[in-house]
Amino acid sequence: MIDSHAHLTHPDFAEDGVGALVTRAEEAGVNRIICIAYDIPSCRETVEAAEKFDSVYAVIGLHPHEADRVDDNDIIRVEEMARHKKVVAIGETGLDFYRDWAKRENQEKLFRASLEIAGRLEKPVVIHDREAHDDVVATLKEHAGRFPGGVMHCFSGDTGLMESVLPLGFYISIPGTITFGKKEGPLHDVVRRCPEDRLLIETDCPWLTPAPHRGKRNEPAYVRFVRDKVAEILGRDPEEIDRLTTENTERLFRLGN
Ligand SMILES: [Zn+2]
Predict the structure, then answer these.
(1) Main-chain dihedrals φ then ψ at residue 68, nearest 5 degrees
(2) What is the Å distance from ligand 1's center to 7 Cα?
């Protein structure tokens, strides 16, 4: 099993350290973790974690929340760090019009610069999209064919959004929110209609802890609860979902075996 989106360097994990998270993940059958950066210090720490642990891969980039704070030098530093062989993608990048912690024009500028880095380095992108679906899709379309696809992480759209990003070479990553509540939501339809070879699972830890641990801190070991819920929705064995999401994550991030 692979957790396709974890923030192992987040301060909430400072006491445990990355090693404890990796060990607990392995005990739960999660043998690889894609660790995602969001600002310059976390880029550095994420590369360090990937150098230290075979099972950890790095995704380097600047979160849209950082857009008012970063300058051209930061973007150059990201590109330099992203050349590292264990950096498998650029991100997380995208647009966040829900929190709006940075000016929208600055978010757009940073998003475009990140897509250009992905194009130059021929690495996929990890996209953060909150209440910015139309603008994210428009920007991705502008750059279509110039970078090797990516993943819509923590997917929060409907099947319409999914249909518009699949032709751009995108994967759909299902977070712990799929385990919340008893009622069906749009994400259930996304799971059912997503092509089998485009589905990923993630924790987005330390946030979005799946049931039965909802409300506590999340960690990569808990990605199995997302896998189990996806299996239940699709009427499949958890082992099958494990196998196919693992293959998809390996293909997207070119992990090899
Ligand atoms: Zn994230």
Answers:
(1) -80, -20
(2) 7
